């Protein structure tokens, strides 16, 4: 394999390819130790334990705003579908000669060309750089929680020593994910930063983790099939499947049903960056900047709270906009579900909990308040929230496969408040589409988009939030 030595992911694969079976020379045995089976561990990216946490309090940044170059148009015009997909007769027959036995014609990257594990366009670079920011924060966030909260605090939520080892393991997995991405980005890959977490106890931390891993996961699903570099997509796919498992584990540790949804949504990169940036405090000098937009925060005033027995019976129980992560402050003990005596109402850490009172439901009024644009957010407060949409008229619900719009009611553009009503929509067979840890945006038009082109709605987005439906 003649891959460039600068891209360690290719080197890693070359190493794996050199593993050979060891010949049996004596009594049959299943354990071998020899020079041919002892392979060195590949070099992992340089990383350290972040020691500083909290909001940014350094000097104003000298460079602000997203990275940009010549912008050709305010939005991308819709175009007809690609003819080769429309014209392919999906009839189960073979329509081309086979390149080799047992192999159909077609596919991308299947003609024998050597895979190069690197980004191949600005789109690839910016997308993987965004994903790397997520791997870095998770590496710190999971370690930070373990170091910050006591064993007793974890035990009180049913998260025992073995569960804590799982969290430690999940933190360490991020070293591998960060290494893979940084190798494919090259020397200017974004570095580790310092962070600011909106949590003050184990329950809040677990909820922030399950929300952050969801938008990190959904953020990758949104761009993965659009990458120019198939080899880069392959490597990222094999990391993001682990991220998906982490998301599920944190839901389980919070006593939530592990995966209520039938499909995981994908979101645009600017949504993932909008949700992440407020929790990044400062990044090193010369940090590579990102092209993505930061939208204003949407505050869900009655965001469902999974720490409660009746999670929909809430007012202002988040620790802020964007993540809209749960707060346990001021919840009386007998309203917390963790130790509820009725088994249909409790929510200790578990493989699954039936929540007999739904967190959210069709017909629920959801009360909203959104921020004005022009706020400084993100690393060194060096990004600025922007929107083209001064007067939103719809709530966009993005969960599972489809986008659904509901009208905003009782809108006050002065106060930036409104409410909307949760729609009654399903994916298949009455499976509620609005479910799980999902997303809500406010928009000025109900633009028709489907999972592969959700980002076309960005020029119409006024504000953005995580919504906790189920
Ligand atoms: C970070 O801290 C953990 C203990 O919490 C330790 O095991 C690990 O080696 C440290 N990592 C680095 C890079 O210093
Ligand atoms: C294989 O496909 C790639 C990308 O489409 C192309 O650049 C390359 O020239 C092709 N190689 C061969 C041997 O046809
Ligand atoms: C739940 O009950 C256990 C056992 O009584 C107790 O140790 C723990 O502190 C309780 N957890 C909370 C969050 O109150
Ligand atoms: C979410 O899905 C689960 C599992 O199918 C279901 O029990 C629950 O009622 C759904 N939640 C909502 C809010 O529809
Ligand atoms: C961000 O702030 C830190 C701390 O003040 C500083 O060391 C660093 O150089 C700044 N980063 C950038 C990209 O300006
Ligand atoms: C800053 O980054 C640029 C490339 O983005 C590089 O050319 C330059 O050498 C870097 N400066 C320092 C001081 O690291
Ligand atoms: C849960 O709270 C909602 C909203 O306040 C309320 O409509 C519903 O009746 C409550 N459910 C139960 C079982 O108490
Ligand atoms: C919730 O917060 C909003 C916005 O800060 C405020 O207007 C409202 O009065 C609060 N509601 C309650 C019940 O505290
Ligand atoms: C769990 O919830 C499902 C769906 O509502 C219900 O059919 C089942 O009986 C419940 N099981 C238990 C043990 O509560
Ligand atoms: C909507 O606005 C009207 C008039 O201001 C008010 O009477 C009503 O209570 C509001 N509805 C809600 C759900 O806030
Ligand atoms: C949602 O729609 C389904 C199918 O139309 C209907 O059976 C169900 O009663 C509706 N649920 C609510 C809460 O309106
Ligand atoms: C998603 O929405 C499109 C357009 O309304 C519709 O054709 C499709 O059936 C929907 N898919 C699902 C799984 O609900």
TrEMBL record:
The keyword Signal applies. Keywords: Signal. InterPro entries: Rds1 (IPR039254). Residues 1-21 form the signal peptide. This is Protein rds1.
């Amino acid at each position: 394999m003649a891959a460039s030595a600068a891209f360690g992911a290719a080197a890693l694969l070359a190493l794996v390819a050199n593993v050979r079976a060891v010949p049996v020379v004596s009594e049959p045995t299943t354990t071998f130790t020899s020079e041919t089976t002892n392979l060195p561990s590949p070099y992992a990216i340089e990383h350290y334990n972040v020691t500083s946490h909290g909001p940014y309090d350094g000097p104003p940044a000298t460079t602000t705003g997203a990275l940009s170059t010549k912008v050709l148009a305010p939005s991308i015009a819709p175009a007809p579908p690609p003819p080769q997909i429309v014209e392919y007769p999906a009839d189960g027959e073979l329509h081309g000669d086979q390149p080799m036995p047992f192999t159909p014609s077609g596919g991308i990257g299947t003609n024998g060309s050597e895979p190069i594990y690197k980004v191949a366009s600005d789109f690839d670079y910016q997308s993987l750089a965004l994903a790397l920011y997520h791997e870095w924060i998770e590496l710190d966030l999971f370690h930070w929680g373990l170091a910050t909260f006591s064993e007793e605090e974890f035990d009180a939520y049913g998260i025992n020593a073995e569960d804590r080892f799982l969290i430690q393991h999940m933190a360490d997995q991020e070293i591998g994910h960060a290494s893979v991405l940084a190798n494919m980005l090259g020397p200017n890959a974004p570095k580790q930063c310092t962070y600011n977490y909106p949590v003050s106890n184990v329950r809040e931390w677990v909820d922030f983790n399950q929300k952050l891993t969801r938008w990190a996961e959904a953020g990758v699903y949104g761009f993965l099939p659009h990458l120019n570099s198939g080899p880069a997509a392959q490597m990222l796919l094999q990391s993001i499947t682990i991220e998906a498992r982490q998301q599920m584990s944190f839901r389980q540790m919070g006593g939530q049903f592990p995966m209520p949804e039938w499909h995981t949504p994908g979101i645009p990169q600017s949504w993932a960056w909008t949700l992440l940036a407020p929790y990044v405090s400062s990044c090193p000098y010369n940090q590579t900047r990102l092209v993505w937009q930061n939208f204003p925060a949407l505050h869900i005033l009655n965001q469902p709270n999974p720490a409660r027995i009746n999670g929909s019976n809430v007012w202002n129980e988040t620790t802020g906009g964007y993540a809209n992560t749960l707060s346990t402050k001021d919840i009386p003990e007998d309203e917390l579900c963790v130790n509820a005596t009725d088994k249909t109402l409790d929510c200790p850490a578990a493989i699954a909990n039936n929540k007999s009172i739904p967190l959210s439901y069709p017909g629920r009024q959801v009360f909203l308040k959104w921020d004005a644009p022009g706020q400084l957010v993100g690393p060194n407060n060096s990004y600025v929230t922007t929107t083209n949409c001064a007067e939103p008229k719809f709530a966009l619900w993005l969960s599972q496969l489809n986008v659904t719009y509901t009208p905003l009611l009782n809108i006050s553009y002065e106060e930036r408040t409104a409410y909307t009503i949760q729609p009654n929509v399903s994916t298949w067979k009455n499976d509620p589409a609005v479910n799980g840890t999902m997303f809500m945006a406010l928009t000025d038009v109900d633009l028709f988009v489907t999972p592969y082109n959700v980002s076309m709605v960005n020029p119409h987005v006024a504000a953005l939030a995580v919504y906790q439906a189920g």
